[in-house]
Amino acid sequence: MTVAIRILENIEDMALVEDLQRQVWPGSELDVVPGHLLLTAAHNGGLVIGAFDTVSKNQPPALVGFVFGFPGLYFTPDGPRPKHCSHMLGVEPTYRNQGIGFLLKRAQWQMVRHQGLDSITWTFDPLLSRNANLNITKLGAVSNTYLRELYGEMRDGLNTGLPSDRLQLDWWVNSRRVNRRLSRRARQPLDLANYYAAGVKIVNPTEVIDETWPVPAEETSLPVLEKQPDNDPPAILLMEIPADFQALKETQPSLALHWRLHTRSLFEILFQYGYLITDFIYQPGKHPRSFYVLSYGESTL
Ligand SMILES: CC(C)(COP(=O)(O)OP(=O)(O)OC[C@H]1O[C@@H](n2cnc3c(N)ncnc32)[C@H](O)[C@@H]1OP(=O)(O)O)[C@@H](O)C(=O)NCCC(=O)NCCS
To answer: Partner of 290 for a Cys bridge, out of 112, 229, 243, 259, CB 3.0 to 4.6 A?
Structure first.
């Protein structure tokens, strides 16, 4: 497959983005961001970037992925600062897991740096392992902000049926962390064995019942934090999530809701404590497993 990445700036391109949205988030015409809004954003500092499959010589290149964002503000004690707010990233279902999401975000990173900005933010569902892997492991975004039911009840086919909780990501585009992850010689990600070897604890040990989905144990090991009033809390903790939440949601909606509420409460406690999500582990295989890595006392940069 040959993929070309380019900036989209005309209304014909925006119509392709409308169509692709219908494929990625099916079922709700009301939720398609219209071409005229994409175009206006793109002409006023926003970015709509497309990925095209250019393999077939007889066909025009097909749009198979896009990322869309616009300029915004974040607020500091010294006043507001400009940032880029990334709103949507989508890849056509049959083109996923081939690095297209990464290429689109890398192009966005390059353009936003070129605009002189140092921050990109966006939100995502914390139970989506693939998104977490891309956003945190591969791109180097961090998070310590949990937003309950951010979008109210969602109507599209991917999001319907569960509270729309989101993590907000901070992508400090000029930071060492991000530069290292996007460099051609990116670091080798750490795996679960590395963390086990260092004695790192899992805050929510899970059980796999009937070889299907992990179920979080009733008892979490958060008391680990409370038992050490005089010491610093553990420098690193792991939190497990299901490796394929979409499939779990389709087959066991009540367990999916349980996972939503369970991880909501853990993230809120850990963020209040001062933890920051700094990494993510995905262990593929017959029984894939996924874990957030939370660090204590690390700066977001
Ligand atoms: C999220 C999305 C844009 C990612 O696009 P993509 O092109 O598949 O992403 P990439 O291939 O660049 O990166 C995904 C990575 O996750 C890995 N991955 C696959 N399944 C995984 C899983 N269950 N858990 C963790 N990682 C997984 C892939 O192997 C790949 O890593 P690698 O390149 O090291 O092999 C795409 O899945 C999508 O369109 N999803 C629906 C819409 C959505 O959720 N958009 C984002 C919120 S607005």
So the answer is: 243
> Which DSSP helix (H) or strand (E) runs through 21?
helix 11-24
- Domains present along the chain, CATH in parentheses: 3-182 (3.40.630.30), 192-296 (no CATH)
pTM value? 0.95
CA atoms within 13 A on the CB side of 39: 11
Tens digits of per-residue pLDDT, 52-104?
A: 998 866 788 999 999 999 999 999 999 999 999 999 999 999 999 999 999 99
Q: Which residues contact 241 (CB under 8 A, 6 or more apart)?
A: 126, 127, 129, 132, 259, 263, 290, 291, 292
Residue 209 neighbours by CB distance under 10 Å: 10
Q: How far apart are CA 108 and CA 106, in angstroms?
A: 5
